[in-house]
Write a structure and sequence with these properties.
Two copies of one chain form a homodimer.
Chain A lengths: L3 H13 L25 H9 L14 H9 L1 H19 L9 E5 L9 H4 L13 H10 L6 H13 L2 E9 L3 H11 L6 E5 L8 H14 L3 E7 L13 E4 L9
Parallel strand pairs in A: 1-2, 1-4, 2-3, 4-5
Chain lengths: 256, 256
């Protein structure tokens, strides 16, 4: 039932507002070379973000706010997530796990296992087109009502059934441990090996360094990281990244 | 004038065939979860390929042949390339180069600086939906008439003007050195520091290992790899990848 706000938003959009058919249409171009003289081609922008060609960006370009909003609330985002999850499962089910319980799958949390879309869809957040507001985001996080990313909840359940141990490795801080545990359990993530949150001593560390350090510690404990999934490249680059990485779409924000 | 086959193809497509307006429209989905029950969502497939979530694939899915063809011959591919090149230039122009001539930019060749689209657009190649045929591809390569990727030729010229030394690092073999030189020069790549091709001893090495080894050798010679651009993740992963990498779109084939 916790997923209601998310479904509600999507339902509203699908029933009361016609999702423009030209969501993905090409903008007018001038001439054969196809260069878009004015404005931003939001599909190209999103691809460049997803492929790590645009880095350290602070907000979604103003011109792309409604594009990103329609993408995130529409079917394409869900289908994009589903294809990543499907490929992750195809990879995972063909592995032979040890019987020592040390084969792990590392999941990031925000925009990977839990979705902050109900927060990001608010007018004053504008799908990331407005500058990040740590106060209002923390208030949202504290509510503990983030819905699951459906494709990855389904993947999680399948991985648990295959015998993987699950490690959640998140940039959320220890302050939100209990809220996060409650939130995860309420939406269906009922079991895990470890939930690793940032301690106060990690506060000034980049996600890339923090997560590399934590993964190195996991491997030092004997765990084998067979899969590693996150919505940020900083979840997947660095050291000890695991045997396979999976990049979940996220055109709303960038974390280094 | 060597670019004519490429332009010709694109012109034919744009003048004699209406590019379907629903090229990027969403396929029918069943229910709110947005999961595409039958068939492949080709946009999701392409995103998953570009983000390295689908690896070691041999051919474009049959269902996506016309999607990939329309994408490659249409404006979106060129715009996607342009946005990557624009971001590469924004990065490059803000660097301060040394006066020792050791600041280099590494470019892959096929589908990065030269385009094999006239070959891939042939019905029996089908934009990669038909299995790779090394014989016919070699025949095409030997002609030395591949057009430039427009956005990256433009980037190349700007990088040369900024003072970068250019290194072409390609999976093409030494057999095609003269053809490749002629081809590069004919389309506008007129100067470079090194053109590194695979020698016979590299023939069984993966691109990832071969290119890492060659980049390590460049750094051992004192070169600083400030930028590294390729259409395959195997151009950009491994060791000695350079200060920044740029992934050029390529949904037609995969090289490990």
């Amino acid at each position: 039932m916790r997923a209601l706000p998310f479904l509600y938003l999507a339902t509203i959009l699908e029933t009361t507002q016609v999702i423009p058919n030209n969501l993905h249409l090409l903008r007018p171009h001038s001439g054969l070379a196809g260069h878009n003289v004015e404005g931003i081609d939001c599909l190209s922008w999103r691809l460049a973000v997803e492929t790590d060609n645009i880095r350290s960006w602070s907000t979604v370009p103003e011109d792309c706010e409604s594009y990103v909003g329609n993408y995130m609330l529409g079917k394409q985002y869900r289908e994009d997530c589903q294809v990543v999850a499907d490929n992750a499962y195809t990879y995972a089910k063909n592995l032979t796990l040890g019987d020592d319980g040390l084969d792990i799958w590392v999941f990031d949390i925000d925009e990977t296992t839990l979705s902050n879309l109900p927060y990001y869809a608010q007018p004053d957040v504008a799908f990331g087109a407005v500058a990040y507001n740590s106060t209002t985001f923390s208030e949202w996080e504290a509510k503990g009502i983030a819905p699951a990313v459906p494709a990855n909840l389904d993947l999680y359940k399948k991985l648990v059934n295959l015998g993987f141990k699950i490690v959640f490795l998140t940039g959320r801080t220890e302050t939100y441990r209990n809220t996060t545990i409650e939130n995860l359990k309420n939406v269906g993530y009922t079991t895990w090996e470890k939930l690793i949150l940032k301690s106060s001593s990690d506060s000034s560390t980049t996600a890339l360094v923090y997560k590399s350090t934590q993964r190195a510690a996991l491997e030092a404990e004997g765990y084998r990281i067979l899969g590693n999934m996150g919505d940020q490249w900083s979840d997947l680059f660095g050291t000890n990244v695991g045997n396979r990485t999976f990049k979940v779409p996220d055109p709303m924000y960038y974390i280094s």
